[in-house]
Each structure stands twice: as structure tokens, then as C-alpha cells.
Write a structure and sequence with these properties.
Blueprint (H helix, E strand, L loop, with lengths): L7 H9 L2 H18 L1 H18 L6 H20 L1 H8 L5 H22 L6 H21 L21 H4 L2 H31 L3 H29 L3 H20 L4 H27 L11 H27 L3 H20 L18
Helix pairs in contact: 2-3, 2-4, 2-13, 3-4, 3-7, 5-6, 5-12, 6-10, 6-12, 9-10, 9-12, 9-13, 9-14, 10-12, 11-12, 11-14
Length: about 375
Amino acid sequence: MALYRCTAPQLAAIASISFLPGAVLSVPFGRWIDRVGSKKVLCVGFAAASVCLLLRIWVKTYWPLLSLTLIAGIFLVPTGVASAKLLGEWFSSKEMPIAFGLYGSSAGLGAAIGFATGNLFPSVRVAFLVIAVLPLLLLGAWLLSGELTACGAVNGSAPAVRKMSSVLLRSRNLWKVAVCAFIASGVSLVLNTYLTRALTFKGALPSAAAAIGTILNLSMIAGGVLGGGLTAKVGRYNRLFLVLCVSGGALLLAAWFVPFGVFTYLAFPLAALVLSGAVCLNMAKISLLPLIGEYKPEEVATANGVSNMCMSFGSFLLPVLVSAAAGERYPLVFLLAAGAFSAAGILGSRMPELGSLPDRGTFSAGN
């Protein structure tokens, strides 16, 4: 904080400001991707973001640092928005749960690597340099890549869309997926924010609380992969999604209300394992909804932009609302979290079954 002459709240703003562009720009970026293809938009985004991140090395005060971080976040929005379109171009409908499980887990893996290596850098500016190089590496990988659409993929060969259809915004099932994403992202951030303080209040040593938090994040990585594999094995989305959300919420309550001990170390990571599987399962639905006519196949990135927009709003709004409603009343925090996930499970299960769709390719606009 002394390096940039900023306060603790200002430092927190730098860490969270990158969520803001996704709440505002996910849909416009999705439309752009649907018009010109994922590859072009991602390459522009990686190049521009890298420049902004590189400039942070030379700033010496808070406001330029915050501004450059915000602008870099704008150019990185397509990274999340393009996922449904890209995975739909590479995988069949039966492979989609595993594909999104791996994709969802990669975000947790990146966060875990960041936490594990943060103290290894000799200075903040060296860390900023490494961060700035990463988008350049991704840019090089995309520039060297050729045609990536796979034969038999879910969205393999439809033309680019020039105008967004009103049918997409009227899709009830898309909005159900988006509301589930809103709940999942917001509640996950709430739990990450409260967990260490709550466990310390419960009687855990700070080191034990931190250890549980680390194990929980590692469980979220494994949960996406296992959840995707289980979905592919079962072949059904709705009932499994409901079971995962409700049982994950129940595990959260058990982990909190049972006296602190060995069970706490097991229940919290197990809850994260189950709930992260549900989150990845929900993400996979965006690529499959065109197969039942919810919106045009070539509008997948725009649809994912709607979901990403809601997810970003959830990351902002739910922590604020829970903090206002619960304060430091930790039992209420976990009751609200479990109830929110259960509500998401009920909502997400009340839509057409996507696991029974034929394993065939149908659509998309290329890379």
C-alpha cells in the first residue's frame, strides 16, 4: 500500500475493479464475437490488455494504477464471453460437460497458482511484468493456431450473425441459466470473503482457517472435472444439477453448525467439490440451448455475454446485500448461502432436459 500511497479499501478496489467491465460490456463483446469470430476479438483483446498491464510497471500513484487495471479488464472481457462459442466449436454435446468442467476448473487453478507464487516475486513491478507477458503468450498461441473447429462439434459451421435476434433476450431458459450464474458467482465470493473470519470466530486458529480455505479452493478445481465427468456418465442435467446444489448447500450448513473439528476439514472442501460441479454443469448449458431452438446457433457468444453479465453483477451485488443483511452473524451467512444454492438448483432444474439431445453437430461462426 505504501508503494502506491493507497488505503486498504483502495487496494481492495484494485483487486475487484476487473469485475466491473464484465457487468457492462459482456453482451456487446458477445455480439462482436458472433459477428467477426472469436479469434480476431481475442487477439485484439490480448494485445491491448498486455499494453495496459505493461504500463502499470511505471505508475507510482493509485489512480493511474486503478485506471490501467480497469482498462485491461475491459479488454479481457472477451476471454470469458467467448468460452461457450469456442467449446461449442470443439466438442460434441456429449463431451460438453467434461469440456466445461475442465474449463471451469482452469480458473480455480489459475487463482491457486497466483496465491502460491505471489510471494516469490522480488517486487510488485516484477510481478506486474510477468502478468503483462501472459496475454502476449496467449496472443502468440492464437496467432499461430489454424482452423480450430472440430468435425462433429456442437456448433460447427453456421454463418456469422450481423444483428442480434430478439428471440435470444426472450429466452426464459437462457435467463434461468444466467440467474443461476448470478447466484453461484455472488455466493462463491461471499464464502471466500467470510470463510477465514467465520472459522476464526468459530474457534479455529488463523493457520487452520487458512488451510481450510486453501483445501476448499483446490476442491473447487477437482469439482469441475468430477462434476463434468459425472454428468457425462449419467447423461442428465436437471436432476443432477438439483441434487448437487441442494446437497452442496446442506454440506455447507453441516460444516458450519457441527462443532469445529476433523469434520470441518472434510465438509467444507466436500461442499466446494459438489457445488463447483454444479457451477460447471450450468455453464455448459449455454452451448446446448440452441439445439432446442432457444436462440440462433450463431448467437452463442451473445448468449454467454448475458450469462457473464449476470455473473459479474452477482459478484458485485450479492456480497454487498449479504453484508448488509447478515453483518458478522455468520450462521445467517451460511444459511443464506445454502438457501441461495438450493434456489438455484430448483430454478436450473425447471427447464428442458439437455442431456437427452442427440450427439450431433449443428452450428457456429468460426474462430
